[in-house]
Amino acid sequence: MAKTKQSTHISTGDPGGVLLRRGGEERFQGDPGDDEPVPSKVSIPKVPANSLENVALTGTAYQSSVAYLGYAPRAIDGNRDPEYSHGSCTHTNPAWRQWWRLLLPVVYRITSISITNRNALSERLNNVELLIGNSLENNGNNNPRCTVISSIPSGGTSSFNCTGMVGRVINVYNEAYNALTLCELEVYGEPAAPAASFSAEVMGRKIEVVEKKLCWSDALLYCREYYWDLLSIRSVDEQSEVEAVLQNATFLTKSFSIPTKHVWLGLRRYLRGSTWFWMSGTSMSYVKWEYQYIWQVSSPCGGMDTSDQFYWRSLPCWNHFHFICLKGWSPVSTVCVNFSCRRQNLWSKANRNNICSRALQPGDKLK
Length: 367
Ligand code: CA
Known about the structure:
Bound molecules: calcium ion
Structural class: mainly beta
Number of strands: 17
Oligomer: single chain
Strand content: 25-35%
Largest sheet: 9 strands, antiparallel
């Protein structure tokens, strides 16, 4: 489906200078993107994006290759130093189709991205693409394009207006043969998730307890769209920490003066059997069920009590509860396909016995 985006290029080396607007630019997966934008002069907005926090510092950086110790995280070390010998710039091998990628912990509504160029060989960033999206297909290089960078001054920082674009994967991609070097890349934006939530950390994993109440299927889709997945719990220690988090999430007990008794987890049962699994692909090495139900006649959706013993229970899938999302990418071998209470009929016809067979590959989409 087509999406219309606008992108602008602001030369911050000259605060009163020229802004090139590249409107109506589009790129689709598998589309080589042959529609070159038409520049035109417009005025510069007085406040770019500096009032927002640089969220790139919270992400993880990767790149296609490494040369001269120019590792990918150097572009998100919070240091714009453009002198390569000072150790704050990245460097790939000289080759075709080199890329640098930032994976953010959650999906952001991007306002702008600033890139600092090296003070030598600055022409290497001429005509590279700045891409934003949620797909890891082709190492993230198939995502929609914010802009094609015409040039960035030697040792300077340029800001690219990507307002309206949403994603957690940000790529700098050079189709041509060259080494790719970035001295810093900053991302300004706000989390895209629309509902209020409560952030916490559980055994090193970042989670979000979402205030919105949804049915199990839509809770899963919500987590996969804005974070990573519905939460899985792998050990008694994680269970204990989640219990502590729930005790501190005041909206669970105070909303509508009726205590909320359950939250959704990523627990799902195969429709034709008694086997439960985590939608995130995590193995079920730890469980905390209260009773041994006759699973075949219970609901196939699972959640947790929010008080007392915090037992796990099968609960009617259509009940609307708060839910817990896991943030950030989790390295597992298998991830389970989406359900939706709106789409489940279509889904079950096509995949009746094939819930959990899709292995997570580097080319998989994040949602
Ligand atoms: Ca740097």
